[in-house]
Design goal:
CATH topology: UDP N-Acetylglucosamine Acyltransferase, domain 1
CATH superfamily: Hexapeptide repeat proteins
Structural class: mainly beta
Number of strands: 18
Number of helices: 1
Strand content: 25-35%
Distance between the termini: 36 Å
Number of domains: 1
Helix content: under 10%
CATH class: Mainly Beta
Radius of gyration: 15 Å
Largest sheet: 7 strands, mixed
CATH architecture: 3 Solenoid
């Protein structure tokens, strides 16, 4: 997939990787890195820009109309904090709701839901749910204002 610049071919290959049909309205600029794929669901009219990484063991749902900027990390898996168990994985589903916009180089951590129409500022690290119609930014991300 990452060797193609043909949108139809990219969507066809992404459909095979995810195990579900990726709509022709979805635009993906490669490269896109996904570790499993079968735990990722992508809605209609989604835009995914260059150089994104999706770790999808915990599941990733991207609803309709979502915009994902370059170098975004969707990390649905992490590690326990205790050293004795740190070599195991802890999954947590990421859910990005309709019309959300994830800014460049943002990181969404396991178990986070990004609300409908929400905006995640560039460079933010999101460790908690983002309410609908809000803008968050910073490390860790905090609410900046309402949309």
């Amino acid at each position: 997939m990452n060797n193609s610049d043909d949108p139809a071919e990219i969507n066809h290959l992404l459909s095979q990787i995810t195990g579900s049909e990726v709509d022709e309205s979805v635009a993906v600029f490669t490269p896109l890195y996904i570790n499993y794929g079968k735990h990722t669901k992508i809605g209609r009219n989604v835009f995914i820009n260059f150089d994104c990484t999706f770790l999808d063991l915990g599941g990733i749902t991207i609803e309709d109309g979502v915009l994902i900027a370059p170098k975004v990390n969707l990390l649905s898996e992490g590690h326990p904090t205790f050293p004795e168990t740190r070599h195991s994985l802890v999954p947590g589903h990421i859910h990005i709701k309709k019309n959300a916009w994830i800014g460049a180089n943002a990181t969404i951590l396991p178990g986070v839901t990004i609300g409908e129409n929400a905006i995640v500022a560039a460079g933010a690290v999101v460790s908690k749910d983002v309410p609908d119609n809000t803008i968050v930014g910073g490390i860790p991300a905090k609410i900046i204002k309402s949309v």
